[in-house]
Amino acid sequence: MKKTITSLFVLFVLFSCSKEDNNEIIEAVQQDPSKPLTINEINSKIESQLNEGATFDWKNESDHMLWSAVHHGNNILTIGYGEDGQSFSEVRTSKLDTTKDNILKLVETSENYTRSKETVVEHEIINVIDVKVESYKTIQELRKTKGVRYLEPNGYNHYNPGQVSRSGSGCSKDNDNINTAHYTTAAPNNVQVAWNFTNHNIPQAWNQSTGAGVTIGLIDTGVSQSQSLLNTSGFNDGFSNGRTVEKKGTYIDSPWWWSNNYDGPHDKCGHGTQMASAMAAPRNDNGMPVGVAYNSNLVAYRATSDVLLNDYHERKGVSDALRQLGNRNDVKIISMSIGYVWSIGNVRDAVKFAHSKGKLIFAAAGTSTSVTNFVGVIFPANMNETVAVTGVRDGSNYDNCSNCHDGSKVEFTIIMEGANNNSKKPPVLGFYNNERIYTGGSSVATATTAGIAALVWSKYPNWSRSQVLSRLRQSSDLYPNKSNYFGYGNIDALQAVQ
Q1: In 341-492, where does DSSP find H-type helix?
Q2: Percent of the chain with pLDDT over 70
Q3: What percent of the chain has pLDDT over 90?
Q4: Gap between the Cα atoms of 337 and 380, Å rounded
Q5: Radius of gyration of the chain (CA)
């Protein structure tokens, strides 16, 4: 492999090709540019880059490969427009509108159609449009057009290495028989405290903060309507009082990419319900697992059907949820235990918008099969605007949990599994009433960290995002040092709220 890379480097030096020249060479060797690459050929190119540790980005691919992916992706092309770095614009300028209009006119002319709801979808605030594209020429012309920040085949959903997921269970509505050794009990009426909460001094932190007055935004698969403790009827009960829960939906379950038929706010997967439980399940007399910030408010979005953002509607659903949460003054924290193996433009733009509004955004570093652990920290946890979290095993030495991703982008870790390959995981509320389930991985590590952040912000309500983040770092096991794999390490919640 090293010989191949060296040879390629020598060729680049000898020919002194610019990026544009190199793209032309790549296009020229295509045997038949009017014929798209097959799905296997596209995936093979993606896989080879990821296997080499490279960051895959559509902007680095040839016109032909991009067009081929659009062809196999329901002919959907997502266009980010504006100046470099102009991810969003709350106040539209005439220059920006002209840029967008010129791009749409180019597409209409090249594709020989008049824009309609079936051919063009516009996004609010973020500078993105989705268009129907069938012609190879359209891709070539757009690549040369000023004001185009990126082009991506957001309908291409055929790459799913090893069924990547962000939790050990992914989607599950099952219930587990919980071992009594895996939790302790507390008032009222034997509420269950997950075993790993003690490792992070969360019960001790409750003497000083319970998350009151802080609103957490959860972007996931929604919250089950069959789990009353996470709905209005049971969320505000017992020691959990004076708080609210809201359920929203931005995910569209439709084969038509231009559809606006939202699928509602209710979880159909189970993953979002588990994350909501870990963060904010009530502390009442039902004798069920309690959440970290059991007095915080919760705004839960069903923005995706599962944890893997490989579908157009999932990507747009997450982007829309970020935009809506970014616009809410009451929301301070956003938790996302979802992601993908490469960057997604409209989600990236929306993350930057939410971050510009002062939101503290936590994202899962990734949990997957060994097939995809080479990816490292996944998107969007690998962004500078997010805080990456992963899971580790119990014990004095840091050892990542089963198939949890790690890397230099990780900021914090949460203990998620027993030591010495013990499969013990934290119990949370199940999909249905009076049921519980074990959950783990970087997913619930992220939700747990979001809950701890809520405890800190509740104790210090006038603090800024940077102050809260700084306190979390200072309260972590490895601070002031930072590991190349586990960041600042395990958080001490008690120290964080003192």
Answers
A1: 345-356, 441-459, 465-474
A2: 90
A3: 84
A4: 10
A5: 23
Residues 154/39, Cβ–Cβ less than 8 Å: no
Q: Which pair of structure tokens corresponds to residue 463?
A: 């603090």
**Beta strand 410-417 with 387-393: parallel, antiparallel or unpaired?**
parallel
Q: Report how far residue 375's alpha carbon sits from residue 357's, in angstroms, rounded to the nearest whole number.
A: 30
Containing 49, the helix (H) or strand (E) segment is helix 39-51
Question: Distance between the two ends of the chain, CA-based, in angstroms?
Answer: 52
Cβ of 431: how many Cβ atoms within 10 Å?
23
**pLDDT at residue number 321:** 98
For residue 254, name the pLDDT band (cuts at 50, 70, 90): very high
Question: What confidence tens digit (pLDDT) does each residue in 369-413 have?
Answer: 544 556 789 999 999 999 999 999 998 889 988 889 999 999 999
- Enclosing H/E stretch for 95: helix 94-111
- Cβ pair 241, 295 in contact under 8 A: yes
Phi/psi class of residue 349: alpha, beta or left (left: φ > 0; alpha: ψ in -120 to 50)? alpha
Token reading at 257: 């990419």
pTM of the model: 0.91
Rounded CA separation 367/404 (Å): 4
Local structure of 291: helix, strand or coil: coil
Cβ proximity of 236 and 316 under 8 Å: no
Residue 297 contacts residue 214 (beta carbons within 8 Å): yes
Give 453-497 pLDDT, tens digit per residue. 999 999 999 999 999 999 999 999 999 999 999 999 999 999 999
Cβ neighbours around 327 below 10 Å, total: 14
Q: Which of 268, 253, 267 is nearest to 316 (CA)?
A: 253
Measured CA to CA, the distance from residue 323 to residue 343 in angstroms comes to 17
Could you give the CA distance from residue 394 to residue 491 in angstroms, rounded to a whole number?
13
Residue 115 has pLDDT above 60, yes or no: yes
Total residues belonging to the chain: 498
Tell me the three state secondary structure of residue 156: coil
Dihedral sign, Cα of residue 213, residue 214, residue 217, residue 223: negative
